Amino acid sequence: MRGAVTGALENLEAIRPPKTSYKAPGVLAAPRPSMGIWQGRSRRKTTGGRLRPNRKKRRFEIARELQHATIGTGTVKRYRVRGANEKRRILTTNAINVYDPATKSMKVAKVITVRENPANPNYVQRNVITRGALLETDLGLVQVRSRPGQDGVLNGVRVERASTA
Q: Span 68-158: which CATH code?
């Protein structure tokens, strides 16, 4: 009887994977889920005192994850909002509808790069497009006037400004 148990344990040792895990080079780990962004009322007063909450958090107070519009092939994502309405979010784009105040006409221009972004200076390096960003296009400098994360379209106005390069 004792021999049968020992033999079974030896077979189990042969089947069981080793305790040390090997990670192949170039293989990335699965992304960890990030915490949600809560947009509810703060639990602190402006003076620093504590506010006692009169209810718990609600699902509608959770914000969506950040997905920035960047330069690339045109990709638009649709998502449902309150009231079963729909918004469109630009994930990547390489074209912008440009209004030229001098000629009072609209033209489609190719986006080359992001020159300025008042939302965040790091967005310039990452080529992230937000409202108010200054883009370099084949027609010249263009300021974005639409909200690419909500409108699903990229509109801008041509500006006459000295080049920042």
A: 3.10.290.70
